[in-house]
Each structure stands twice: as structure tokens, then as C-alpha cells.
């Protein structure tokens, strides 16, 4: 069922941490990887981090929200380093979604966000991810996910607002829309957005949970389906499903768009295709999107580290019926404006290559009802067969 005419109209009106390292506004942000990856960072699911590591991560994010922006000449509303990353996403949003380099660009962005947390704010860990499938078993499971915990997470939903402020997007079962009232970011001021605005516009962080959508579109079975594809272009198309040139189709939402809308609803920042990085949860969500791609790649690294196909122009086939530009290749270049130079795609294909240096833990999170805690279990050989497919109707 079509519930919105245009994905482009996704809109929302929508004690500072002590930083252990302070960045100068003239700091050189980018440093070349340049060499062999010997000790990759290991990214883990949020709920498997000890509480002190969760606090360290959140403190580092809050540190970025106090350091001065490096992009204010190009982004007038950018005040902090955290704004720098939201600002580059806003400016490039029209070209980085529904294209063949969507995965690559967001991987590159996330790598530099992780570097900023570590090199400018003293964070010692890796970027965590949020496995949405663990919270899709029921509406209660989604609402009560550890990621929303106000003391060891990112705070929860905003209070319900009957008017979302978005006439173009109607999400069934939305439950919030107001300012996040608890957690470490309840008093944080977002400076950019909504949509494509890079002018300074102070606003609170807003969330508008749609838990029923999460239970329908973020199940383990549906998240696994793109992994059945042998070629990257169709894997990528299915992972970006839901958003097309002729509208946004909620009943086709993928593991990329589904969490954006499940968290952002109609009025929350995560639902804004431009300004969604204003919510710190954006980075855990996209780390999980990257985790899925990493799993798909590692089924056949020799082949899939070289598989870069898909349109170079937004909404060209298969995302639309246009054929306006060439397909991407391994030499296609992506960049992060002032934050990082353009690099060819082949440099971000391998997460343990000459530029990037990270991997994902080969483990799963399991809830222990006795201790009432999530614990890590090593994956079996069968569970590491990421390519295995399951028909959700059987």
C-alpha cells in the first residue's frame, strides 16, 4: 500500500561530557590509511557491550557535540563536530541514496565518524551496531530495547503529538513525535535540518516510534532475504527497498529504510532522509546496515570484494526507469566534502584493506532469562553461512 507520494518529502519538525582530547578547529581531520590492516577494530552489537563501554561511547558522542565544527564556512548552521557529519549527509543526500554507491558512501562516513570518536574524543572502542532483528519479535520488545534505556542507552520515544508536521508521510501505528524526554541526549540541541536546510535552526531531538512497523519489516527472515542474491546490484537494491522515485512504500521497507521509519515515524529525526544523522542512533543503525553488507561480502570475498555495480545517478534502473548515467565501477570516486577526500570505491570494499581497518565480531546476542542479561554466543558453522535463505511464509 502506498502511504506517501514522495520519499524526498520525508520530513520532521522533527551536562556536557568531559572530553579527554580536544580538537583544534584547524585540525587535519583526514589521515591516510596507507598500509596493511594488522589489528582491526572489532565492532559489536550494542547490548553486548559492558556498561562502562556503553558510557565511554556515549561520552565520546557528547564530546563531539561540544567540539567546534570544521565545516562552518560551507555549512553556516554547523556549530559542533557532530554537526559536521550531519551536514555532509544533508548536502549529499540527493546523490547518495538509491544509487549503487549507497553502501560505500555510508561505510566511508561511518569510518570517519568512528575515527573522530577515537582520535578527537578519546574513545578506545569500535563503533557499535544495533541488531534490529533482536527487537522485532513484538512491539513491546522494540519499545523496551536496551538501546532506548535512559541510563545505558540513547533515551526513548518522544511524547505523542497528534500533528506530525509532515503532510507527505503517513506511518500507521506512530506513537510519539515530541522531544526525547530522557537519556543522555534529552537536552541536546540539533542545529541543522529539517530536510536540506544547513542554516542554524535550533531544535530538540525528536523520535516517533512505530513499533508495529518494526515487527513487520525487521524480522530475521526478511533481513536475510537480500543475502540470497549472488550479485551486488540486486543485494543492494533489496537492502534499499521501500524508497522509489514514485514514492515510499512502507509495506516494502527494507532493513535500511525500516529502522529509519520505525524510530522516526512521521515526526522524528531518523525519518528525515537528509538530516537523520542528527539522532546519534543513526550511526548504530548504519553500522548494522554495513554489518549486513560485510556478511554478504564475506560469503565469497574473492569475488564480492570486486563486485561494484549499480546506477551512478539516483533513481536510475533498478530504482527507477531511467538510464541517464553509467553504472559504478571500482574506480568510481566518493568523498565527504571537507571531512575527507574522494577515494575510489575499491578502497572501501574490504574493511581490512589499505584504508579501512575494522571487522565485526562473529557472535550473536542471546537473552539469558536467568540473569536477565544479553550474552554473547559464538556462531556455529551453519550460522556463519550468511547466504542461507529462508522463505518467510514457511
UniProtKB/TrEMBL annotation:
Gene3D superfamilies: Di-copper center containing domain from catechol oxidase. Residues 1-21 form the signal peptide. The lineage of its organism: Eukaryota, Fungi, Dikarya, Ascomycota, Pezizomycotina. The keyword Signal applies. It comes from the Eukaryota. This is Di-copper centre-containing protein. Pfam families: Tyrosinase. SUPFAM superfamilies: Di-copper centre-containing domain. Keywords: Copper, Metal-binding, Signal. The keyword Metal-binding applies. InterPro entries: Di-copper_centre_dom_sf, Tyrosinase/Hemocyanin, Tyrosinase_Cu-bd. GO terms for molecular function: metal ion binding; oxidoreductase activity. Residues 279-290 form the Tyrosinase copper-binding domain.
Amino acid at each position: 500500500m502506498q502511504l506517501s507520494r514522495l520519499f524526498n518529502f520525508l520530513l520532521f519538525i522533527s551536562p556536557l561530557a568531559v572530553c579527554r582530547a580536544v580538537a583544534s578547529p584547524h585540525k587535519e581531520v583526514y589521515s591516510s590509511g596507507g598500509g596493511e590492516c594488522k589489528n582491526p577494530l572489532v565492532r559489536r552489537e550494542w547490548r553486548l557491550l559492558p556498561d562502562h563501554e556503553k558510557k565511554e561511547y556515549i561520552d565520546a558522542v557528547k564530546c563531539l557535540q561540544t567540539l567546534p565544527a570544521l565545516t562552518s564556512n560551507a555549512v553556516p548552521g554547523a556549530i559542533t563536530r557532530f554537526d559536521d557529519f550531519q551536514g555532509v549527509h544533508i548536502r549529499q543526500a540527493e546523490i547518495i541514496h538509491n544509487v549503487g554507491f549507497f553502501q560505500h558512501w555510508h561505510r566511508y562516513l561511518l569510518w570517519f565518524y568512528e575515527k573522530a570518536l577515537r582520535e578527537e574524543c578519546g574513545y578506545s572502542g569500535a563503533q557499535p551496531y544495533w541488531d534490529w532483528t533482536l527487537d522485532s519479535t513484538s512491539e513491546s520488545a522494540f519499545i523496551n530495547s536496551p538501546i532506548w534505556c535512559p541510563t545505558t542507552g540513547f533515551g526513548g520515544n518522544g511524547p505523542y503529538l497528534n500533528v506530525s508536521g509532515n503532510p507527505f508521510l503517513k506511518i500507521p501505528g506512530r506513537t510519539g513525535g515530541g522531544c526525547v524526554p530522557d537519556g543522555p541526549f534529552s537536552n541536546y540541541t540539533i542545529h541543522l535540518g529539517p530536510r536540506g536546510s544547513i542554516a542554524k535552526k535550533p531544535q530538540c531531538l525528536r523520535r516517533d516510534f512505530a513499533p508495529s512497523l518494526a515487527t513487520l519489516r525487521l524480522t530475521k527472515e526478511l533481513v536475510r532475504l537480500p543475502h540470497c542474491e549472488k550479485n551486488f546490484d540486486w543485494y543492494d537494491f533489496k537492502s534499499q527497498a521501500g524508497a522509489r522515485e514514485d514514492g515510499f512504500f512502507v509495506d516494502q521497507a527494507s532493513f535500511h529504510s525500516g529502522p529509519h521509519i520505525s524510530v522516526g515515524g512521521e515526526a522524528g529525526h531518523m525519518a528525515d532522509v537528509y538530516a537523520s544523522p542528527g539522532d546519534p542512533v543513526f550511526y548504530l543503525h548504519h553500522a548494522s546496515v554495513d554489518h549486513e553488507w560485510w556478511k554478504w561480502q564475506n560469503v565469497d570475498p574473492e569475488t564480492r570484494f570486486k563486485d561494484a555495480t549499480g546506477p551512478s545517478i539516483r533513481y536510475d534502473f533498478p530504482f527507477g526507469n531511467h538510464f541517464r548515467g553509467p553504472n559504478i565501477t571500482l574506480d568510481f570516486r566518493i568523498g565527504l566534502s571537507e571531512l575527507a577526500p574522494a577515494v575510489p570505491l575499491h578502497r572501501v570494499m574490504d574493511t581490512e584493506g589499505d584504508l579501512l581497518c575494522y571487522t565485526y565480531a562473529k557472535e550473536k546476542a542471546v537473552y539469558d532469562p536467568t540473569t536477565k542479561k544479553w550474552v554473547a554466543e559464538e556462531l556455529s558453522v551453519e550460522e556463519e553461512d550468511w547466504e542461507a535463505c529462508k522463505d518467510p511464509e514457511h
